Amino acid sequence: LPLDVTSPPSIATALATLTALTSGTLDYLLNYAGCGYTMPTLDADIPTCTHMFDVNVWGPLRLTQALAPLLVAARGTVVMAGSTAELVGVPFQGPYCASKAALRLVSETLRAELKPLGVRVLYVTTGNVRSNWFNNVPAFELPRASLYAPIVKEIAIRARGEMDVPWMEARVYADRVVGDVLAGREGRVFRGATASILGWGVAWLPGWLLVSLAVLFRLFVLERGLLG
């Protein structure tokens, strides 16, 4: 079933097809469409950021709005794919972090509003998962006049997903999320490599310490590159 979450006509076609196939009910809606963008915030292209918000935030909301009657009829479940990027401002992914933080708040609000209608909402804060994600993003190209030109190689490593960090296999991640959904869980879960650790850290560590950790593990090499 082809579907473009940024296209109301595409969503309307999908709705008509699903309604005919299921007699007007839908047990599960998994909002996993998304896109990323790695770029220093000072260099971020606003139209690109706007498109990313359209895919990552308004797309899931459009789809949920359109399919709500089917979900209510089935007392179904909405699943939103979040990211650990919502937890801490990740250098060179500011707009992406913002889009995921926005989606989390939309999901929390939907959970409260849909609960009286018998629909569950599950938000999955997703850590590092080995997938084709980085194979499907535009090639990274830093503007020539960027203040971050001296560390372009470091940023490009992040843009290509070549960081030396733990990764969870996609099959393992999928099995855990499916288990959550079939168990009737709602609210928020942490799945994927490092997701639970980061979630715990944000909940319990002082904000200044989190900033210090971000500087220690992400920026010390970059600072040396910028300042010589």
TrEMBL record:
It comes from the Eukaryota. The chain crosses the membrane at residues 197-221. One of its GO terms (molecular function) is acylglycerone-phosphate reductase (NADP+) activity. PROSITE patterns: ADH_SHORT. One of its GO terms (cellular component) is lipid droplet. Belongs to the short-chain dehydrogenases/reductases (SDR) family. This is NAD(P)-binding protein. It comes from Melanomma pulvis-pyrius CBS 109.77. The lineage of its organism: Eukaryota, Fungi, Dikarya, Ascomycota, Pezizomycotina.
